[in-house]
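User: Predict the structure for this protein chain, please.
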Amino acid sequence: MILCLWFQVAIYSQTSGLVRNGPSTLTFQELMTAAEVDPPPPELQQKMDALFNTPFLSNSAAGGGAVATGTDGRVLHFAEWNIYRTVDDEDAKLALANAPAFLEKERDNPKLKNSDLNALTEQLRVLQQADIVILNEIDDGVAREQYRNVPGEFAAALHMNYAFAVEFLELNRIYLGAKKMDIADRGHPGQENNFGQIGRAHV
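Assistant: Here is the predicted structure, written as structure tokens:
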């Protein structure tokens, strides 16, 4: 509830110079320490506590020319979507930003029945009415998404501000790229944006 309130302030305020603000992220070495040492050292535990209890906020949409409309007394509509660690993030962004284009793409899917298409059309209609979209299990700085800021990308596609709250960290040594895998490891454990963050975004 508190996170929603903070985000509502970010959505309807364009006077601040804030672009993205939030807690300090963990370095790759700190992620490795958290994976190997239980409990973590006090200083690292304090940093993790701040990370888990402080959202990242961005009002970058205002800088891009987006205009806040406010609710004008209307009911504020929320939509929640578990996108499961952003496996198909490009399709998800298309569904949110351009529902007709997404439906046109899905019509070419031979596995999609007419009843499925009708249900999808209705779900997208409801989704387009949302003032705030809650995206669960979304990645930020994780190997499977090439260490991208996926919450920021979704917000940019929708021309909206966003808040992102870290719910858990990717501490598996294989996912971090620090342990040999059976297949070629595409991870880059030394790069600066390996945050290993998975959580919930409000856009």
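The radius of gyration is 19 Å.
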